[in-house]
Backbone:
């Protein structure tokens, strides 16, 4: 098989079209750079009625939305989930890391939760506070101008709250809380947990003439046909491809490796065209990796050459290491006061919670037995029924002394009286990055394209377990304070207090972390490889540490910063 | 009896599976004006990939449940959700057709449903010397009353398989019913259309011991200005 080369040399070859790759595509193409964007999945436009699932009714799916073909159900807009056909990953030493991959234009941003939180000053320098992990080589002040631009460019609703570690920004106004959220606010305040309007990248107000305004269908996970929520496909990539004329888009193209020359600099990438299953090469002055933290690590580790025998960027054995996900635990409460509620109004709201609790404590002052915080997400309300609706509904009678089971009118009554009477809480917390949590190449297994796959090794520590215990203790307090009764069994110590598997929160970061010292980091503070100065990473691989926040707003702010830097360096002919 | 009558409708309903065309739509060139783009509802397509269309087509050509089983399921569905003054019975919402599809699509339902139906016929034979569907309504209900409630104290050990089976039937019937127009109407579900959310209505708030506090409301969207392009001052205060 002969590898086919294209003679054209791009200013930048961008790998992956998600949050990070999409941002790089926008910034570089708008700056006049000639860009190739390579995406492993198919083209996707949230506006296309052929692929659209938004505003569908449950009966339009013969399985009523059940998760037979898509892990989060028929209507969820992700091609690929914990499993991707023909592209396995493996585990080591009893690890059960769950790895979510969306293979499509826009990556996971077509269905993500749109929770868009800036990291705060403490988050970039947390080692200074508790001595754990490492500080980022940059501070909040370095990133702030990019967060500011991002808010205005993409749009995020929220409120300015003057909280030191949850910085203010340029917010669109927040939607009013729903009924169950008012219950949550009341309960949380009673027990001293802060609650503020949530911060989601959804347009509650017009941002520009290109995008629509939210019409409150609660279905952002289906991707918005009015472009009123942020998806990289609709907001970054499609406008850049159509608008600038600077972007060649390669879809269904799976990058195998970065190619390098005798000096060890990148010359481009080698990829498999999934349609003809042949290998191709593209040439570029720079290579910008945004394949998502673990996929980018995989590409680098698979880019072995004489100059980079251990994989590109891996001369100090840091690629794939310090992998860390957010922690997660959740619990649901049955709220009798919400029984038999009035249903005759549309309570859908936006595709996500309208209120949330940012981290409100201080590990030292509050003498906690875990170092880092978490935030609380709230769910509930009168959701559209789909597969699973009504399952064991009558068992809720046990909380009110009613009869369980039955049929006929009694059953109809149960369905109606309990509709919308459950409120749930989920904690999303910061874990400590450890060198010994990592992904690496499995020497024995290749995917259907012959590319060696990743193998995971990951263990939680007591910091995360204790944090999960604090989460469920807090949920129970809030739950009780809002008049709720906890549902299901409370996870005990044997079940790590309900701490979910690593990977399950889908905020994996750290695999190509940035640092000033090449001995313990992969990139410098501009996300530029220490080992090859024309290779950049624009996904969450570069995170030195997580925060008690979701990661994507920071992925995008950093991708913007790195893209500006690339433009500058190319113009100065430094790379 | 109402539930017997609707049986006919049902058996027709089972044959006609969902028709999934491999329609390749042309791209609509709608403007992004945004208010209420409630497009593509009820088109029959539900955003499938080619692989998913092939999956659905395959499931639709398979046969798992036989006619006797489907007839029995129809009777059970209408015992579980008979018609009321305001709402149709489960068979009128074509719940048996849904169950017919879902046991093929989620094979873990197959054995429990098939075995459970046999258990039911066995029980009917023991008690009345005939299959369940041949029993009178009163005879059917006699059996159902023994399996429609949990038996936590283990007083009816012989009924345990029936209780398990009926629970699954009840679950699938509820899902099958409340995911149809008829079911949504019965539930009073009023979502899934374009609207402008402006908070919980006053009369609903009045029924609950919660309220909007003015400080919070001040941070919320003024829906009369939602179409004005956002502008801020240098400190992030919204000006428009
Ligand atoms: C259900 C869900 C909810 C979430 N909610 C939130 C939230 O509320 N807030 C938040 O901050 N984050 C959330 N996230 C996480 C968020 O989606 C990710 O952090 C973000 O999408 C990461 O962006 P990325 O560009 O690094 O990767 P991705 O969005 O995963 O994009 C990577 C792209 O690269 C492509 N690719 C991979 N390998 C190759 C290759 N070898 N060659 C070519 N292309 C390749 C992929 O196909 C994909 O399109 C959520 C995720 C999920 C799944
Ligand atoms: S909730 Fe709003 S932004 Fe989200 S998909 Fe619906 S209309 Fe679009």
Residues:
């Amino acid at each position: 098989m002969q590898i086919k080369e294209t003679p054209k040399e791009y200013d930048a070859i961008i790998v992956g079209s998600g949050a990070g790759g999409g941002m790089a595509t926008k910034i570089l193409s708008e700056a006049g750079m000639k860009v190739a964007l390579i995406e492993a999945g198919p083209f996707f436009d949230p506006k296309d009625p052929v692929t659209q699932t938004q505003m569908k009714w449950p009966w339009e799916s013969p399985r009523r939305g059940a998760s037979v073909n898509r892990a989060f159900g028929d209507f969820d807009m992700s091609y690929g989930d914990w499993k991707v056909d023909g592209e396995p990953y493996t585990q080591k030493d009893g690890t059960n890391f769950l790895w979510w991959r969306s293979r499509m234009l826009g990556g996971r941003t077509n269905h993500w939760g749109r929770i868009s939180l800036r990291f705060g000053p403490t988050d970039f320098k947390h080692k200074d506070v508790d001595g754990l992990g490492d500080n980022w080589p940059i501070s909040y002040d370095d990133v702030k101008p990019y967060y500011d631009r991002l808010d205005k460019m993409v749009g995020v609703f929220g409120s300015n709250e003057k909280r030191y570690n949850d910085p203010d920004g340029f917010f669109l106004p927040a939607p009013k809380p729903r009924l169950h959220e008012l219950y949550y606010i009341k309960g949380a305040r009673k027990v001293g947990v802060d609650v503020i309007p949530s911060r989601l990248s959804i347009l509650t107000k017009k941002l520009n003439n290109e995008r629509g305004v939210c019409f409150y269908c609660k279905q952002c996970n289906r991707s918005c046909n009015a472009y009123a929520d942020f998806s990289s496909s609709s907001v970054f990539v499609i406008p850049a491809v159509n608008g600038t004329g600077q972007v060649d888009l390669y879809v269904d193209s799976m990058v195998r490796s970065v190619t390098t020359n005798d000096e060890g600099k990148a010359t481009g990438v080698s990829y498999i065209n999934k349609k003809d299953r042949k290998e191709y090469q593209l040439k570029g002055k720079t290579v910008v990796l945004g394949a998502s933290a673990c996929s980018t690590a995989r590409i680098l580790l698979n880019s072995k050459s004489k100059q980079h025998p251990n994989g590109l960027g891996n001369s100090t054995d840091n690629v794939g290491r310090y992998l860390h996900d957010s922690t997660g635990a959740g619990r649901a409460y049955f709220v009798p006061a919400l029984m038999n509620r009035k249903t005759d109004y549309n309570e859908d709201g936006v595709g996500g919670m309208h209120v949330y609790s940012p981290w409100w404590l201080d590990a030292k002052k509050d003498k906690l037995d875990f170092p880092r915080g978490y935030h609380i997400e709230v769910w509930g309300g009168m959701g559209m029924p789909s597969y699973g609706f009504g399952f064991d509904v009558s068992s809720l009678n046990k909380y009110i002394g009613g009869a369980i089971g039955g049929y006929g009118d009694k059953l109809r009554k149960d369905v109606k009286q309990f509709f919308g009477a459950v409120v749930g809480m989920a904690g999303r917390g910061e874990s400590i990055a450890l060198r010994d949590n990592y992904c690496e190449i499995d020497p024995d297994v290749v995917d259907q394209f012959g590319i060696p796959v990743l193998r995971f090794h990951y263990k939680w520590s007591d910091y995360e377990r204790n944090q999960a215990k604090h989460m469920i203790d807090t949920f129970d307090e809030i739950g009780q304070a809002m008049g709720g009764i906890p549902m299901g069994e409370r996870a005990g110590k044997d079940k790590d207090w309900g701490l979910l598997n690593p990977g399950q929160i889908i905020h994996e970061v750290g695999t190509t972390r940035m640092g000033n010292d090449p001995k313990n980091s992969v990139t410098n503070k501009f996300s530029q490889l220490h080992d090859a100065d024309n290779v950049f990473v624009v996904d969450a691989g570069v995170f030195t540490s997580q925060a008690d926040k979701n990661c994507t707003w920071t992925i995008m702010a950093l991708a913007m910063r790195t893209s500006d830097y690339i433009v500058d360096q190319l113009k100065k002919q430094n790379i | 009896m109402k539930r017997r009558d609707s049986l006919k409708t049902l058996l027709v309903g089972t044959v006609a599976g969902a028709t999934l065309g491999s329609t390749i739509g042309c791209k609509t060139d709608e403007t992004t004006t945004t208010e209420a783009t409630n497009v593509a509802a009820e088109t029959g397509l539900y955003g499938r990939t080619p692989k998913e269309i092939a999956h659905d087509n395959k499931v639709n050509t398979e046969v798992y449940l036989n006619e006797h089983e489907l007839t029995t399921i129809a009777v059970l569905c209408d015992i579980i959700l008979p018609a009321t003054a305001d709402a149709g019975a489960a068979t009128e919402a074509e719940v048996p057709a849904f169950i017919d599809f879902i046991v093929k699509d989620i094979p873990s339902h197959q054995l429990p449903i098939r075995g459970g139906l046999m258990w039911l016929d066995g029980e009917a034979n023991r008690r009345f010397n005939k299959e369940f569907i041949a029993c009178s309504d009163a005879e059917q209900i006699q059996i159902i009353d023994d399996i429609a409630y949990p038996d936590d104290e283990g007083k009816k050990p012989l009924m345990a398989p029936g209780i398990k089976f009926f629970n699954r039937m009840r679950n699938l019937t509820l899902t099958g019913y409340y995911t149809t127009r008829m079911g949504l109407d019965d539930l009073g579900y009023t979502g899934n259309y374009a609207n402008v959310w402006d908070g919980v209505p006053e009369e609903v708030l009045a029924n609950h011991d919660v309220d909007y506090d003015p400080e919070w409301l001040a941070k919320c969207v003024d829906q009369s200005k939602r179409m004005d392009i956002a502008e801020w001052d240098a400190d992030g205060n919204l000006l428009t």
About this structure: The CA atoms of residues 338 and 421 of chain A lie 5 Å apart.
